[in-house]
Amino acid sequence: MMKPNPAIFNIPAVVGWMIVLMVLIHLFRNVVDARLATEFLYRFAFIPARYGADFFPGGTPARYWSVLSYAFLHGNLEHLALNCLWMACFGSALARRFGPLRFLVIAVLGVAGGAAVHFVAMPNDATPMIGASAGVSAMMAGALRFIFVAGGPLAAGRSDPQSYNIAAPTLSVVLSNRSVCVFVIFWLAINLAMGFHNYLYFGAGAGIAWQAHIGGFLVGLLIFPLLDPHSVRPENSSI
Predict the structure, then answer these.
(1) Looking at the domain 11-227, which fold is it?
(2) From residue 122, how far is each of 51, 117, 119, 232 by CA, in Å?
(3) What is the pLDDT of residue 8?
(4) For the chain: N or C, fewer Cβ within 10 A?
(5) Which of 28, 59, 26, 32 has the alpha carbon at shortest distance from 43?
(6) CA–CA separation, 231 vs 172, rounded Å?
(7) How is residue 2 annotated by DSSP?
(8) Partner residues linked to 168 by β-bridges
């Protein structure tokens, strides 16, 4: 009799389909001719300067759809693989707890929040921003609100389905957890270091859009209790 697959390989369907869609879009951009690939990029990438000019592909309508569509485009295979890996890890944990609909809501809000923060930081930048990192950062932040707490998936050290449904504590309690603090500090340090490196060597607007990562992370961290059916909400405590 065969043993059931470990839960780590049982990626929720909504996460799996998002990964498949990103892979298919990346393959499409790599099989079409260079001219069409470039037009596709500028039509669907998030470009802050688009909001002050009409000459970008897609025109005015692209100002609305690019706030979300940029998340499905990736610069290269490494960029795509990294986002798929982090989504499979943290997105799966969140999807198991939230279900597909609420999971998609936090993903969409994270992507949009990342675009908003990037725009505020660089409103005139004409460099296309692409990648699912802001949405993945929102998933990561949402998962951090329960995976390390007592009884959570990582704290329990096992893949017990019930560990994904424990009552999540308030934000102040989560941020007092040593594992969460170490993870957040490490994650912030990496993003700030990458941002400084790219600014120093390539100039503003080049390289990794770390502002969008932080924007998505903050959205996921703060919006989590509004969507979570298992959060503890004492009357006199913070979110």
Answers:
(1) Rhomboid-like fold (1.20.1540)
(2) 12, 9, 5, 37
(3) 43
(4) N
(5) 59
(6) 13
(7) P
(8) 231
**Which residue type is seen at 63?**
R
Query: What's at 33, amino acid-wise?
Result: D
Do residues 143 and 216 touch, judged by C-beta distance below 8 A?
A: no
Phi, psi of 229 (to 5 degrees): -80, -5
Convert the pLDDT of each residue in 33-51 to its tens digit. Answer: 999 999 999 999 999 999 9
pLDDT of 123 reads: 92
Where is average pLDDT lowest: 46-50, 190-194, 232-236?
232-236
Phi and psi torsions of 168, nearest 5°? -80, 135
Residue type at position 3: K
Q: Closest by alpha carbon to 215, among 120, 83, 128, 75?
A: 120
| Nearest-angstrom CA–CA distance, 138 and 61 | 26
Question: Do the Cβ atoms of 163 and 153 come closer than 8 Å?
Answer: yes
Residue ranges covered by each domain of the chain? 11-227
Contact 232, 174 (CB under 8 A): no
